[in-house]
Amino acid sequence: MAQLVLDIGGMTCCGCVKNVQKVLDNHIGVSKADIDLASGVATIDFDEQQTQEKSIIEAIEDIGFDACKR
Ligand SMILES: [Cu+2]
């Protein structure tokens, strides 16, 4: 199990957080994702056998948010 901490740009309300949360929860290999709206930080636990950092970042970018590794 690996952990990825991302700065997510563009989240302005809890609706945004919900959208990002949904994408992460549905992402194969992600076991846990905590998102903090105030700081814009997402802490993501994932299985390296099933997904990779790049794929998780792309999934967030695909719905219109910026994501970069801390
Ligand atoms: Cu929003």
Task: Tell me briefly what this model is.
With 70 residues, the protein is an alpha+beta fold. Helix content is 33%, strand content 36%. The structure holds copper (II) ion.
Describe this structure in words.
It is a single chain. The protein has 70 residues and is an alpha+beta fold. It has one domain (2-69): 2-Layer Sandwich (Alpha-Beta Plaits), CATH 3.30.70.100. Helix content is 33%, strand content 36%. It contains 2 helices and 4 strands. Strands 2-3-1-4 form a 4-stranded antiparallel sheet, covered by helices on one side. The structure holds copper (II) ion (CU). Copper (II) ion binds at residues 12-13, 15-16.
Which helices and strands occur, and which strands form pairs?
Layout: E1 2-9, H1 14-26, E2 30-36, E3 41-46, H2 53-62, E4 66-69
Antiparallel strand pairs: 1-3, 1-4, 2-3
The site of copper (II) ion has 4 residues, from helix 1.
